[in-house]
Amino acid sequence: MTFLWIALAAMAAYFAYGLFTPHPTKRVFADDLPADRVENGYLIPQEVFDPEEETLFKRASASVAAHTGALKKHAARDDETFHEPHWGHTSAMLRGTLKIDNIENLPEPFRVGLFSQSRGYAVVARAGTQKDPDVGLTSTRLAIKLDYPEPVPNVYAPSGEANELDLLLAAGNPGNNGADHTFFARDGHQVAMAFGLKPPSLGTLKTLANWRNIAILLDVRRRVAGLAAPLRKAPVNQDGWAGMPYYSLGPFALGDAAMKFALLPVNPHKVAEHDRMKIDFADFSKKNMDDWLASGEAAEFTLAVQLATPDCIPEPGPQDPPKAVMAAEYCDLAWDETASPYLPVGTLTLSTDTAINTAEIWGNIQYNAWNTLPSMRPLGQLFRMRKHVHSAHSNVRVAHLYGGKPGALVGKCPFSG
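Structure (tokenized):
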């Protein structure tokens, strides 16, 4: 009986601690944020910067770098089938072209940055797969690097600029308004909390000591399960990488507005039916990539842009900020694709006869969503965190896993054409 009372007292203390202490990971927005701004029917995004963000970003970056540094040295250089936990495996590096040829589909104020003129760009694309052992998320990703004619801000260049522009996307469901067209976490607090659980530390105990943190982690896990579910079922799980749609997941600026962008497949690319959670997805994807290369058929995608409008953003809940803040800061927010459809602006073509099958090259090419023009910069806390986290991870990845020199291939990418 004494043990029962002790257990009940401990449970009550645990509940009270989580209930009455300040919530350590939930973002709280000020009540006096300005009202939404709308110009010509389009929402003007509004970012909100938390005072502790830099500390948050450094902690998450250090955790990711430590996780990668703990892996076997030169593992990816010595084994081209190596699959890095959380970050995945590169199936191939491809070359091709991106033609911006439909800018008239954008309202004139948003014909800026990459969409300021009709022209073609040489590109390299890293096609990869990710199987996260902790959250159970398996996905295909495309990282596109353009040969841009003018210097663009670059995270890895010593000068801070390079003639390269990056577009990062992840595969989703081809259906309209798919749940997997968004990121699985809302903000930097949620991601930093998840990163901080491994390797186990005092921070892990501190996180788990508050039941409200556990509730958020379970909610993130629930969202991940919702994202993965449709991708495990036919016919979606029969789409090979060249027949999948890809989404930017989070919001980006487009001039004074906010956008998301997508690559939508023009031609089907079918593979054997499979369950992504049960197969060796890296081996499976590598075989399908080799089969596609042998086919000689180019992969073609339509580059499309979705603009934020008041109608496509959900109505704020009791604890939500205005729509303009939600559009910029909620990375898990679905924008209604019926209210604001994706507008085709260009065509990406990747050729089978220009594949780069050397891990020494693809392992040292570095991408970052912030390697882009200011008029197209990423928006929101989660993307601000990703700038630091992806940079820290990429530098350790190049040096530790591939034995390369971070930044060595900036400006030297093997573009086609």
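The CA atoms of residues 83 and 216 lie 28 Å apart. The longest strand covers residues 138-153.
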